[in-house]
Specification:
93 residues; globular; single chain; alpha+beta; 5 helices
Length: 93
């Protein structure tokens, strides 16, 4: 399904950080996955998944991928203020 904003987001995502926000169940993850198809080597990190949180912390993906999609980031935003507590939370999860 093509969404009318998909092309506009794709145009911007090649140049800058793009954040998709909106209510639950409106298709943010779906659109993110669709946008990944435009790139050679994208990575999807769902921060509800402990292994994905550890990958984010380790940053082993940074130079390997031409698009990084981070999903479910709201739960970790308060922890980002204090990197040490975030690392500890990720390691415990």
């Amino acid at each position: 399904m093509k969404r009318y904003v998909e092309q506009a987001v794709y145009k911007d995502i090649k140049k800058k950080l793009v954040i998709l926000t909106g209510p639950r169940q409106v298709g943010k993850t779906f659109m993110s996955r669709q946008l990944m198809s435009y790139f050679q080597n994208p990575i999807y990190l769902n921060l509800d998944i402990p292994e994905h949180r550890l990958r984010l912390q380790q940053q082993d993906w940074y130079d390997l991928h031409d698009l990084v999609v981070m999903d479910e980031i709201l739960d970790i935003l308060p922890a980002l203020k204090d990197g040490d507590s975030y690392c500890a939370q990720a390691a415990r999860a």
